[in-house]
Amino acid sequence: MPSSSLRLKTTLFTNYLIHGFGMIILTQNLVKLSHHWNSSLTVASFVLSGIGIGRLVAYLLMGFISDQFGRKTTLLIGMTTYLIFLVATPFNSSVALAYALAILAGVANSALDSATYPLLAEINKNGTSNSVLLKAFISLGEFILPMIVLFLSQNNLWFGLSFMVPATLMALNLANLLPLNVRQSQQVIEEADLQGLVISRPKKVALSGGLFVYGYTSMAVMIWFTQWITIFAKKIGFSTTVAHFLLSLYSLGSITGVITVVVLLNRFNLKKPVFVTLNALSLLAITTITLSTNADLSAVAAFVFGFSAAGGLMQIALNTLLSIFPRHKGMLTGTFFIFGSLASFSVPIITGLLVKMPHTNIMAGDIIVAFVGFLVALIMLVTLPPENSSLADARKSINKIDSKLIALLEERFAAVNDVHKFKQTGQIAIKDLNRERQVLDNVAKKTKNKDLVPYNQAIVQTIMDNSRQYQASLK
């Protein structure tokens, strides 16, 4: 791998380590921040909603900027706005400004997503596994920050240092990114690669629509679980220790799942079976958790649910979406994550209404969400073209197609031989431009994927040029 690409990937992954800090940094410091803002804890918690507002407002704009003005420009916007949020928040004493800074953090999140996911798909061919690996860095950040906050609290140190650590990392990361030529780090993509997956229009519509729905369900199924599992477990009679331990097992399963998925996708091209299997496991696990009253069984199911639902499924879905329409990666990434943001907004409202209903199993709704996700996985299984498990297998497929082409070319040259005889008898010129135009027009009409028309026409034109040379060689 070129050094510039390695430096760029280091920057991207470090950004998401910092993003892991950023996702929980306000909640981890909320009590101290509420005192600093001279507000109640209720008012301070309202500031958290600013992050969601910032994401919703900015995703489409950042996607547009990413596609039209470049990935590096969008990265710089995201990194700079995150740095401002991290540096200014612990010094700020105004609730209004705190809300504005939270919105800025949401904008930063949307900018990083809109640049990073498309860029990872363009740096090399392991875009899916690299995208899944981002989830591991987020989890690592979420694991480290609480320890930093605890250390500062136990040693009576300023809480703002927990903001300064990621801020320092972000400043160093900016310094690493600025001299990089991101365009040179991206692979030179052949024009044919920009056409997207070659599948029929109905399949493309069904798959892309399903994947946008999955942008909602993949986020909703995790939010539902993490917000309610502890309360639900206590309600059905589990001890407080077990109730909290279920969430820890979920987190451990998530990290294990991410590592497993990255290894599988790097070593084998198993995106479809991995996606379907993990969605099936997710549905099975959340159903078990909802119906079980056995603490040990629920513990195993919680780990399996984290392993499957939070093991990188969202990233696999997004990478598949980008492969369908590779010319608009930034806008597609933004749109996909808007659906995730809608889940962040709507799940608390839905569950808040459900919990008011007596005798309602609050986790049952998560089964429905997981089932919809599983249906999308089945759509992917049916609509995506067959996968080759390795480069060797891909070349075997091409060799089989080439063998069929050779046989067809031999048939064509036999027909050309007959044409030549008729031309000789009628004293007709070998070159017939009108006939060649008709052939090329016919190629355009019969090519289903219209983006491939110029390539198919060029291939057929070459065949006709060689056919003329063959006729000229005949006596």
Fold and architecture overview:
The protein is mainly alpha-helical and 475 residues long. It folds into three domains: 1-188, MFS general substrate transporter like domains (Growth Hormone, Chain: A); 192-387, Growth Hormone, Chain: A, CATH 1.20.1250.20; 391-473, Chorismate mutase (Chorismate Mutase Domain, subunit A, Up-down Bundle), CATH 1.20.59.10. 81% of the residues lie in helices and 0% in strands. The protein is built from 19 helices and no strands. It has helices spanning 3-28, 30-36, 41-46, 49-69, 71-88, 95-123, 127-154, 161-177, 182-185, 201-235, 240-267, 271-291, 295-309, 313-324, 329-354, 364-383, 391-426, 433-446, 453-473. Helix 1 (3-28) crosses helix 7, helix 6 crosses helix 15 (329-354) and helix 10 packs antiparallel against helix 11 (240-267). The longest helix has 36 residues, at 391-426. The protein is elongated. The two termini are 55 Å apart. Residues 184-195 have low confidence and may be disordered. It is a multi-pass membrane protein. Residues 8-389 form the Major facilitator superfamily (MFS) profile domain. The chain crosses the membrane at residues 12-31, 43-62, 158-178, 205-225, 245-265, 274-293, 299-322, 334-355, 367-386. It comes from Fructobacillus ficulneus. Keywords: Coiled coil, Membrane, Transmembrane, Transmembrane helix, Transport.
